[in-house]
Specification:
The protein is of the alpha+beta class. The chain has five helices and four strands.
Length: 141
């Protein structure tokens, strides 16, 4: 049973075009720009999800929210890496939850980073598609 025929010369021409786009660094450049956008979007989202503490005199803190940073993108092999991190000492306790002083209770975690990563994962196709279309433009026309 035959599915169809493929002209080898046309196929070779197409593969050479794909190689040219990839070797020309256009794809890497466009993905790097998109990865920066993903990092910026992640930073905005995680800051918005981070609670701001309040002092007993009514002032607000915001140290934890201001502590968020983004690093990258960095490129290793075939992977772009973006890091969202917070160096504030108690960030992990707010993220994951903790026992109360004296151990009598439990404060639930806020999971601001977890929720942000989940949100970004669901948005990745929309965030990366324009870059792919721009970098690989003309291949499928």
């Amino acid at each position: 049973m035959a599915w169809g025929t493929i002209d080898d010369a046309d196929f070779q021409k197409f593969t050479n075009q794909v190689k040219g786009k990839i070797n020309g660094q256009a794809l890497k450049h466009e993905l790097e720009i998109s990865a920066r956008r993903v990092g910026t979007q992640g930073l905005r989202s995680v800051k918005a999800a981070t609670p701001v503490g309040q002092y007993t005199d009514g002032r607000t803190g915001g140290t934890l929210r201001r502590g968020w940073n983004v690093k990258g993108p960095s490129y290793t092999g075939s992977t772009f890496v973006i890091e969202l991190f917070n160096n504030v000492e108690y960030a992990g306790f707010v993220e994951n939850g903790h026992r109360t002083r004296g151990g009598g209770g439990w404060v639930e975690g806020r999971f601001m980073l977890y929720k942000t990563i989940k949100l970004l994962n669901s948005q990745l196709p929309q965030l990366l598609s324009p870059a792919l279309q721009k970098a690989l433009g003309g291949l499928f026309d």
